[in-house]
Design a protein that fits this description.
heterodimer, A: 3 domains, 54% helix, elongated, disordered C terminus, B: three-stranded antiparallel sheet, two-stranded parallel ribbon, 18% strand
Chain lengths: 223, 110
């Protein structure tokens, strides 16, 4: 395996050296074969002709042996690459148009994407998102609901918020739908506790805000 | 004459080359001569496929080649069996004998 790789590398980077070696090897073969026929009493020309026939032609043998080095694909690719570069070098005008088009395409794509990222996907207004954690209370008895969907009970949350010192602030939200003043359409929103608006650096894009009185405590709804 | 000579089945040339260089390092031409001699000229070894096979075997690490001065004072490329090649020769010989035995037993079926 390793010798295979080493051989192919040598075949690739010392190609001329290997080709010269192969030529010498095949020449040596032809000479010995010719001498064999000479010893049998054939004239020089005929002996040489037979030797070449036995080998199946010098060029064919050369080509087949080169193919057996296992780098033909890479060699052809390099050839194509060289050919491509040479063609580009010859057609200066075409090359200029080609490079300009490519530059324009890449440049405009990059510009549009930078703009889109900056304008259309602003980070959510949490401040330092790395310090944000999500509190859940997984419940063994409710296996059919994903554990991260179960948030603390309102009363538990109030206790945690009062007694925990690990977080600089805590806020609660729950997805809910709301009805406004007896209207028939319902709005999707989130019920959040009153700290939410203070925790978020900005929330203008979150929609309208209204305050509801619940039986236990004040909650704010956004939609 | 050509009627009595057998073409080599696919893949057997590698095995025969390994066997030929197992005794002593040989150069390409000597390998083709050796194969013809041993087989009493019954085998038709295409000289043109000898060199691709040799280089393939070298790539696989089964033979290694080095240039040396031959008996008539010329530089020649000698091929020598490696220890890995010796193992390969044993494996392939065993496989060949098994195959030949199986084919033979089928042909002897009455």
């Amino acid at each position: 395996m390793l010798s295979d790789l080493r051989y192919r590398f040598r075949a690739l980077f010392r190609r001329n050296h290997l080709n010269a070696e192969l030529d010498e090897e095949l020449r040596d073969h032809i000479e010995r074969e010719t001498e064999k026929y000479l010893r049998a009493g054939l004239p020089v020309e005929e002996a040489r002709r037979r030797a070449l026939i036995a080998l199946g032609g010098m060029e064919q043998a050369r080509q087949q042996t080169r193919d057996s080095r296992g780098i033909r694909m890479i060699e052809q690719m390099l050839q194509d690459l060289r050919y491509g570069l040479r063609s580009l070098g010859k057609n200066r005008a075409f090359t200029a148009v080609f490079v300009f088009t490519l530059a324009l395409g890449i440049g405009s794509c990059t510009a549009i994407f930078s703009l889109m990222t900056a304008v259309m996907f602003p980070p959510l207004p949490y401040g330092d998102a790395k310090r944000l954690v999500y509190i859940t209370t997984p419940n063994q008895n409710m296996r059919q609901i994903p554990p991260e969907a179960i948030i603390p009970d309102n009363a538990d949350f109030a206790d945690m918020k009062r007694e925990s010192h690990s977080f600089s602030a805590m806020t609660q939200f729950a997805q809910e739908s709301f009805k406004l003043n007896g209207a028939n359409t319902s709005l999707n929103g989130a019920a959040v506790d009153e700290d939410s608006s203070r925790r978020c650096k900005s929330h203008s894009s979150w929609g309208a805000e209204s305050t509801l009185k619940t039986t236990s405590r004040r909650m704010t709804a956004w939609w | 004459m050509s009627d009595t000579r057998m073409e080599l089945p696919q893949g057997t040339l590698d095995l025969l080359i390994l066997k030929a260089v197992a005794l002593e390092p040989l150069h390409g031409w000597a390998i083709s001569e050796r194969l013809q001699q041993i087989s009493s000229d019954a085998l038709q070894v295409q000289q043109g496929s000898l060199y691709p096979a040799l280089h393939r075997l070298e790539r696989r690490g089964w033979v290694k080649a080095k240039w040396a001065i031959s008996e008539n004072n010329r530089r020649a490329k000698y091929y020598e069996l490696t220890s890995q090649g010796r193992k390969q020769l044993a494996t392939e010989s065993a496989a060949w004998r098994r195959l030949a035995a199986v084919v033979d037993s089928v042909l002897n079926m009455v």
